[in-house]
């Protein structure tokens, strides 16, 4: 059997626990909510700071911007009601700031956040959504139906690529 170092074992264990809790949760407990920045800021901002500023070293002054106030925000809650992930949809169809706290990754929460934002885009009558994907997450977005457009560029010291999706064709 493969030997994981202690940290990996801890992550594996947490992932199994999250998957178990999600599988046991009632449908209304597997929640990703959509709301305004005013409604979600207190819960979403700490997640974004932990993931983008602390983990990815994005300068704090770039993390919050004027688009937060006009975006629809997704907030993912674990079965106990604790906020564990977030993302946002701008009125022009740009999706961004998609983040899941490390212990809850690889349990389908990021995909749920994205599907909630895609549904919100459809609800708003948008036909196309676009995002600046960090290159490491390209597969994550491709799994959801996004296609890469153009070439790789640098933003906040991280490689990115533009990805696009026709939401009218989404499932
Ligand atoms: C990217 C991120 C939001 C994904 O959230 P998550 O909850 O771990 O994703 P999911 O569990 O829903 O993954 C869904 C699928 O995408 C894949 N995936 C997830 N993260 C990935 C990554 N970084 N690179 C490649 N594939 C990834 C998973 O393997 C899974 O595929 P599968 O269903 O075939 O097994 C999360 O890793 C994160 O917060 N990363 C740090 C912040 C970040 O980089 N955000 C993206 C900015 S563009």
Textual characterization of the structure:
The chain is of the alpha+beta class and 171 residues long. The protein has a single domain, classed as Aminopeptidase (3-Layer(aba) Sandwich), CATH 3.40.630.30. Helices cover 37% and strands 29% of the residues. It is built from five helices and seven strands. The protein is globular, with a radius of gyration of 16 Å. The protein binds coenzyme A (COA). Coenzyme A binds next to strand 4, helix 4, strand 5 and helix 5.
Order of helices and strands: HEHHEEEHEHEE
Hetero compounds: coenzyme A
Percent of residues in helices: 25-40%
Reported for the largest beta sheet, the result is: 7 strands, mixed
Name of the CATH architecture = 3-Layer(aba) Sandwich
Structural domain count: 1
Please tally the helical runs, counting DSSP H or I stretches of 4 or more residues: 5
- Strand adjacency order, main sheet: 1-2-3-4-5-7-6
């Amino acid at each position: 059997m493969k030997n994981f170092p202690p940290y990996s074992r801890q992550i594996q264990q947490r992932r199994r626990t999250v998957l178990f809790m999600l599988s046991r949760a009632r449908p209304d407990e597997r929640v990703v909510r959509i709301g305004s920045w005013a409604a979600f800021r207190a819960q979403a901002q700490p997640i974004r700071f932990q993931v983008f500023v602390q983990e990815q070293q994005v300068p704090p002054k770039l993390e919050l911007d004027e688009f937060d106030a006009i975006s629809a925000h997704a907030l993912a809650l674990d079965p106990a009601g604790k906020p564990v992930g977030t993302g946002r949809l701008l009125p022009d169809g740009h999706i961004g700031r998609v983040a899941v706290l490390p212990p809850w990754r690889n349990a389908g929460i990021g995909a749920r956040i994205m599907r909630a934002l895609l549904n919100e885009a459809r609800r708003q009558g948008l036909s196309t959504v676009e995002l600046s994907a960090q290159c490491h997450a390209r597969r994550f977005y491709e799994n959801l139906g996004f296609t890469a457009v153009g070439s790789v560029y640098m933003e906040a010291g991280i490689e990115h690529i533009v990805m696009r999706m026709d939401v009218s064709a989404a499932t």
